[in-house]
Amino acid sequence: MSKETIKVAMIDDHDLLRKGICDFLKDFGFEILFEAENGKLAMEKMEQSEVVPDVMVVDINMPVMNGFETAKALLKKYPQTNILAFSVNDEVQDVVKMLNCGAKGYILKGADPEELKKAITVINDGGRYFSAGVDEVAKEFYKQFPQS
Q1: What's the CA gap between 136 and 139, in Å, rounded?
Q2: Could you give the CA distance from residue 61 to residue 64 in angstroms, rounded to a whole number?
Q3: For residues 28 and 42, what is the distance between their CA atoms, to the nearest angstrom?
Q4: Contact 49, 34 (CB under 8 A)
Q5: How many CB atoms lie within 10 A of CB 55?
Q6: Fold for domain 7-144?
Q7: CA–CA distance, 49 with 34 (Å, rounded to integer)
Q8: In this predicted model, what pLDDT tens digit does every residue of 45-96 receive, in sequence order?
Q9: Alpha-carbon distance values, 109 to 84, 90, 105, 139, 148 (Å)
Q10: What is the pLDDT of residues 83-130, one digit of tens each?
Q11: CA angle 139, 145, 148 (to 5 degrees)
């Protein structure tokens, strides 16, 4: 498999979690372009980056600029990037709101690291990925909005 390395940005306000995930994503062979503790910092780092991440893993509940605002801002300015929502929250309204903001996937923080690896790969390859706890919500969303 001679594919280019998938470039990832990790946006989460919990330092230990964010750094730990970046470490195992590197071990999986992904390139971490940057990490940020909120959407505002992520946008600033995007401005400074010469390369747009292939996949941005975005927490929903963050201070300063939450995941919904971050997803909207990223996709408006960098429509080529793919957003993977990353949250402990499996509430229907939040899953739907993230999909409406342009997320291509939604993975729960309780997922196995291998599942996160798979989600990033699927989304990078043009697909969609949803954790077991939110997949039914996503199916209903795409029935209503098939072009999304």
Answers
A1: 5
A2: 10
A3: 23
A4: yes
A5: 24
A6: Rossmann fold (3.40.50)
A7: 9
A8: 999 989 999 999 999 999 999 999 999 999 999 999 899 999 998 888 999 9
A9: 12, 10, 13, 20, 24
A10: 999 999 888 899 999 999 999 999 999 898 999 999 999 999 999 999
A11: 95
Q: What are phi and psi of 124, to 5 degrees?
A: -60, -35
Rounded Cα gap, residues 10 and 93, in angstroms = 23
> For residue 68, what are the CA distances in angstroms to 2, 38, 72, 125?
34, 11, 6, 23
* Long-range residue pairs from 127-131, CB within 8 A, at least 24 positions apart, any chain: 128/104, 129/84, 129/104, 129/105, 130/105, 130/106, 131/90, 131/106, 131/107
Residue 80 tokens, joined: 């080529």
Count of beta carbons in the 10 Å neighbourhood of residue 64: 12
Looking at residue 147, its amino acid is Q
Per DSSP, the residues of the chain read --PPPPEEEEE-S-HHHHHHHHHHHHHTT-EEEEEESSHHHHHHHHHH-SS--SEEEEESS-SSS-HHHHHHHHHHH-TTSEEEEEES---HHHHHHHHHTT-SEEEETTS-HHHHHHHHHHHHTT--EE-TTTHHHHHHHHHH-TT-
